[in-house]
Amino acid sequence: MSVTKEKKSELVKAFKTSEKDNGGSAASQVAVLTERIRNLTEHMKNNHKDEHSKRGLLLMVNRRKKLLAYIKKKSVSEYEELIKKLGLRK
User: Fold this and answer.
1) Ramachandran bin of 30, using left for φ above 0, alpha for ψ from -120 to 50, beta for the remaining angles
2) Which of 34, 42, 81, 90 is most buried as measured by Cβ atoms within 10 A of its Cβ?
3) For residues 41 and 35, what is the distance between their CA atoms, to the nearest angstrom?
4) SS3 state of residue 78
5) DSSP output for 7-71
6) pTM of the full predicted structure?
7) How far apart are the C-alpha atoms of 4 and 56, rounded to whole Å?
8) What is the pLDDT of residue 89?
9) Per-residue b/e over 52-68, b at no fewer than 16 CB within 10 Å?
10) CA-CA distance, 87 to 83, in Å (whole number)?
11) So what's the pLDDT on residue 90?
12) 73 near 6, Cβ under 8 Å?
């Protein structure tokens, strides 16, 4: 259910913004959050009464929303590229 270390480092490597980025940049944080959200969404389909996980899912979605707003404010082109890469929004 959770994101493994290997998967997380793979996502960070794919979305890092500089050579020194180890997962702290907003783009890599959004990528990891998106993976966690997708995993938890699958869990919620089978366990719809799991209120604790539902709360965690909502917190992650809101955190990703804030990070995306920050990226959009900083650079619209970077935001659009990230959205396209992650397959968010239509």
Assistant:
1) alpha
2) 34
3) 10
4) helix
5) HHHHHHHHH-SSTT-SS-SHHHHHHHHHHHHHHHHHHHHH-TT-HHHHHHHHHHHHHHHHHHHHH
6) 0.90
7) 18
8) 81
9) eeeebbeebeeebeebb
10) 6
11) 60
12) no
Cα–Cα distance for residue pair 47/4, rounded to 1 Å:
21
Domains and CATH numbers, the chain: 26-86 (1.10.287.10)
Q: Tell me: the pLDDT tens digits for 42-89?
A: 999 999 999 999 999 999 999 999 999 999 999 999 999 999 999 998
Query: Which residue has tokens 């907003």?
Result: 26
Question: Could you tell me which residues come within 8 angstroms of residue 73 by beta carbon, excluding any fewer than 6 positions away?
Answer: none
What is the amino acid identity at position 37? I
Two tokens, residue 21:
């980025």
Residue 77, φ and ψ in degrees, nearest 5: -65, -40
| Contact between 4 and 48 (Cβ < 8 Å) | no
